[in-house]
Amino acid sequence: MKSATTFLMFQGQANEAIQQYQQWFSELQVESLTYMENSQQVAMAVLHLKGLKMMVNDSVIQHNFTFTPSTSIFVECESEEEIDSLVAQILEGGQALMPLDNYGFSKKFAWIQDRFGVSWQLTYN
């Protein structure tokens, strides 16, 4: 096996999502980003966030499915301020699947679906 990578397929919102994720996560690096001809739709992008490699694109084929909350990106925050800030930002236009709280397994934890449908689990211990 050469590699295994998280792949996020959007339907016309990939560029907007990448820009939003760059605002939320200052550590996010865009390794490469190519657009479809004469368009702002993403043909392919490769992102890196704290060791996680993600491939992102806009599908040229319309699908009857989108992201599922059961697949999520898990983020371990370094401070209470960081988790509080990220949760507030991601909730703008999104929804809390598990609101920020102490669930026993984490001092602070939230499971949030962002406005693009991508799910994020954030934890601080």
Automatic annotation (TrEMBL):
Superkingdom of the source species: Bacteria
Name of this chain's protein: VOC family protein
Listed PANTHER family: PHNB-LIKE DOMAIN-CONTAINING PROTEIN, PROTEIN YJDN-RELATED
Pfam short name (any one): 3-dmu-9_3-mt
Native species: Lysinibacillus agricola
SUPFAM superfamilies with a match to the protein in the record: Glyoxalase/Bleomycin resistance protein/Dihydroxybiphenyl dioxygenase
Gene3D superfamilies: 3.30.720.100, 3.30.720.110
Domain PhnB-like per the UniProt entry, residue ranges: 4-123
